[in-house]
Write a structure and sequence with these properties.
By secondary structure, this protein is mostly beta strands.
Length: 333
């Protein structure tokens, strides 16, 4: 079951795609250079099945993420309310009101969730004002009926945030290891993305239970924050998706141009360097920088379309679209 968000004047509704078929944001207009030609489909080959959309929850404010739990439950975060809800059989109930714990400003608040139903564990990426405004990752245990959170633990802290702009933040549980991947925003500070000792403008990789840097991280031997860094040189990572081959792909907001989809390579520099100051006229992937920059697998060109969440499409009912990347579009990020 795939999910989309339907916006109305009065409220925001959560809708389930019962017969999945349309890709939010559409398909890339050309084959990504890092994807074999056999994995791509031409416009003539694409025959998406029709959609049936059923609304399962209404009255949500800025819903940021939706994850599946057990027994048909959906877990939903609302950015500005800092509320986590469980939706089941068309009914919404509050799992946790975290408004006293979280800092909400602009694009920062309660953002991405990750859920391990088997371990009854939930992770959230959110704003915090404790010790100065920043973004952090917290972990909770969940009871059997998914009615209560307990045993909160801070896994990762100090992700930069000033005004709340470009707060990130996407979480992904690696299927092949104990890693939790964390995509972060650059906090609209030009030096953050390529500063390896800043956690902003990065994809980080930590142990999902302890928050320790994963042993395979490219700078794991460092004594500074860079030991958490997997990739760097990002502007505002809003999506992470793992393909069947184990590769991880990011979706990133451009400035006035070039939203990007990137295949993540350990230690890779993705070329966002808006200095001096915060000069958003520079390329999203600036190949004039020293060293090697990773080219995007796909970019929007001009204008941007605000790609955010993404998932690899699986299942024969998708027809020729099976194995492609579905991208969600947002605004104002």
């Amino acid at each position: 079951m795939r999910l989309t968000v339907r916006r109305t004047r009065a409220s925001v509704s959560l809708a389930a795609l019962l017969v999945t078929g349309s890709l939010a944001g559409g398909l890339p207009t050309g084959p990504p250079p890092s994807v074999a030609a056999a994995d791509t489909v031409s416009d003539r080959e694409v025959r998406a099945p029709q959609l049936r959309v059923r609304t399962v929850a209404r009255g949500l404010q800025h819903p940021w993420d939706v994850q599946q739990a057990t027994a048909g439950r959906l877990v939903v975060s609302e950015r500005d309310r800092a509320r986590i809800s469980v939706v089941r059989k068309g009914e919404r109930r509050t799992l946790a009101d975290l408004s006293r714990l979280m800092w909400v400003s602009g694009e920062t608040g309660l953002m991405s969730l990750a859920v391990d139903p088997a371990a009854r564990t939930l992770w959230a990426c959110h704003g915090s004002a404790r010790g100065g405004t920043h973004v952090q990752v917290s972990r909770w245990c969940v009871d059997r009926r998914w009615t209560r959170l307990s045993s909160r633990r801070t896994l990762l802290t100090g992700l930069p945030s000033t005004s709340g702009r470009h707060g990130g933040c996407r979480l992904l549980l690696d299927r092949d290891s104990d890693a939790l991947l964390v995509g972060t925003g650059d906090a609209a500070v030009g030096t953050n993305p390529r500063d390896l000792d800043s956690l902003g403008g990065k994809v980080l990789r930590v142990h999902r239970r302890t928050g320790a840097p994963m042993s395979g991280n490219p700078f794991v031997g460092a004594s500074s924050a860079r030991r958490f860094v997997w990739t760097y040189g990002h502007r505002n990572v809003q999506g992470l998706a793992q393909r069947d081959d184990g590769s991880v792909w990011s979706v990133e907001h451009g400035s006035h141009r070039d939203d990007e989809v990137n295949r993540l390579v350990a230690g890779g520099d993705y070329g966002w360097n808006p200095v001096p100051g915060y000069d958003e006229t520079v390329p999203m992937t600036d190949q004039s920088l020293a060293g090697e920059q990773q080219d995007a697998a796909w970019s929007s060109g001009t204008p941007t379309i605000a790609t955010s969440g993404a998932a690899w499409v699986r299942g024969s009912r998708w027809g020729a679209l099976e194995g492609t990347l579905a991208r969600r579009c947002a605004e104002g990020l």
